[in-house]
Amino acid sequence: xxxxxxxxxxxxxxxxxxxxxxxxxxxxxxxxxxxxxxxxxxxxxxxxxxxxxxxxxxxxxxxxxxxxxxxxxxxxxxxxxxxxxxxxxxxxxxxxxxxxxxxxxxxxxxxxxxxxxxxxxxxxxxxxxxxxxxxxxxxxxxxxxxxxxxxxxxxxxxxxxxxxxxxxxxxxxxxxxxxxxxxxxxxxxxxxxxxxxxxxxxxxx
Length: 205
Prior knowledge:
Elements lengths: L8 H23 L3 H20 L2 H11 L2 H5 L11 H12 L4 H15 L9 H15 L3 H16 L5 H11 L3 H26 L1
Helix pairs in contact: 1-2, 5-6, 6-7, 6-8, 6-10, 7-8, 8-10, 9-10
């Protein structure tokens, strides 16, 4: 890939073909005359596992797109022209009604980041956190980078595969554990991490 500068589909095809070749070679070495038959069996098992693990990605994508701009594409253009999607609008509305001090700005941005992470993406609200952080910086004279980083970290903490069960489904399926149980066990350490991060951000402003 490096020498031929392969990217995208070409690189994927090279990796896939190499994997198939290695699988075929190992099956022939390990199973002798039954090598080709075993190769087919392993292929079937692999596809079954892939569908089992990544099948739940469909509802995850649904939460993501309904919370973001996909609402207008799927349902219709019922949202206001200035809307950023249902989830992001919740964050904007919260930020608009809270009086600003450094402490309140930090807490508000953390909550906004957490709300935008509820769609299970962890990254869809980064642009919103950036714009709100910039506005708060102009109002309180703090550090724009600190505010924006806090919003991004909070969104990733909540929605990036840590606290939201539908964002945990692929990892939970691979490990054969319940995504809800995994989210429950993550709740306390991640809540502590969010609180500590928010407090530190107040002192960094």
